[in-house]
Amino acid sequence: MAETDTEPIKVLLVDDDEDDFIITSDIIHDIPARVYSLEWEPSFEGALKKIALKQHDVYLVDYRLGAHDGLELITQALQNGAVAPFILLTGQSDRETDEKAMRLGASDFLIKGRLTSFDLERSIRYSMEHAKSLAEIQTLNAELEERVAVRTQELAQTINQLKETNKSLFEAQQEIKKALQKEKDLNELKSRFVTIASHEFRTPLSTVLSSASLIGKYKLTEDDDKRQKHVSRIKSAVSNLTGILNDFLSLSRIEEGKIYNVPTDFDLRAFMEEILDEMQGYIKMGQVIRYHHQGTPATVTLDKQLVKNIVLNLLSNASKYSAEGKEILLTTVVEAEDVKIQVQDQGIGIPEADQNHLFTPFFRAQNATNYEGTGLGLNIVKRYVDIMNGTLSYSSQQNVGTTFTVQFFKKPCV
């Protein structure tokens, strides 16, 4: 694999037409600044054998391969453990094939008749960066596996301690069951993390890749609207990636015990107004957040940053799962014994069968799978509320809406 800009990038072209190999060779030869080493393989079976050797940095795969096609090759190669990126080449523009290729694991989709050295160089560069990002996720997976090994060692130590302290057989069995369940939960958490992270990173990265490639094609002044459209898509994708990373970072800090409850005195009503101003740039077109406060004075003693994180998360969810033009209600109530914060939407609601799992890490309700997200938001909100010694409740009806209520007591409950 290529390590530095001075080493050639090794490219394997899988195409049963020698003329296409000659054309591709000429295009690669015209790419400035970098050196490429192009190898040609005309057969489906031969390509699988060469890919298995993992000696190339990127694969250019023609859609038509005799009795097979490029999508079959990509699917089988990935199942066999291929790690370098695949770029699908086709003779004509076909959005359905493009989307199918991305779903199956291709990094990009290029049209041979329109291919230029600029397009190919950009596609190879972005595809290799994409593969590097996925490799980093796999590294994180390895680190999680190491944590599993540490937990397994802790389990063995627990068993020895139980034997040494002469605990009863029943007590020992209960402790072992708890430790084994903890192992199982950690393994499941690891698997869900890797699956969701891989999927959620691939979608915005593919958007950035395709939009960045298309921007280069719009060179005239009258194409400015098209350029701006793809710039907006890139900004949205980067914002989505930032949100995903923030969720993972928040969960990590909570797991490590680095989130503390630090109450201060502040005006709750004025603080909510500031949060609403911040939310205006994130809600959907036509949506309106209506705010109502009850109670005088509005001064409360709470952790200001945790309250902000909770409210922003609940409002973002309300906007995400509601249609354009819908109204979102934010209510705060300050009473003698407690403080309540309530967010009500007119969105898709939560199916009754899913409600018991709502605060489980990485859980997505069955009617929310088409919406972007990690399934961590409500789990993080619940844990923030717990850190502040509050309560979080909700009511929801599918296709009607959902209401979340956060309650903080001014003095401990008896």
Automatic annotation (TrEMBL):
Coiled coil feature spans: 134-192
Documented EC number(s): 2.7.13.3
Keyword Metal-binding in record: no
The organism's place on the tree of life at top rank: Bacteria
Alphabetical list of PROSITE patterns matching this protein: HIS_KIN, RESPONSE_REGULATORY
Residue ranges of every copy of the Response regulatory domain listed in the record: 10-127
UniProt domain Histidine kinase: residue ranges: 196-412
Pfam families: HATPase_c, HisKA, Response_reg
Record PTM 4-aspartylphosphate, positions in chain: 62
Major enzyme class: transferase
Keywords: Coiled coil, Kinase, Phosphoprotein, Transferase, Two-component regulatory system
Signal peptide range in chain numbering: none
Keyword Coiled coil assigned: yes
Catalytic activity line of the entry: ATP + protein L-histidine = ADP + protein N-phospho-L-histidine
Molecular function GO terms recorded: phosphorelay sensor kinase activity
Protein name in the entry: histidine kinase
Source organism: Rufibacter hautae
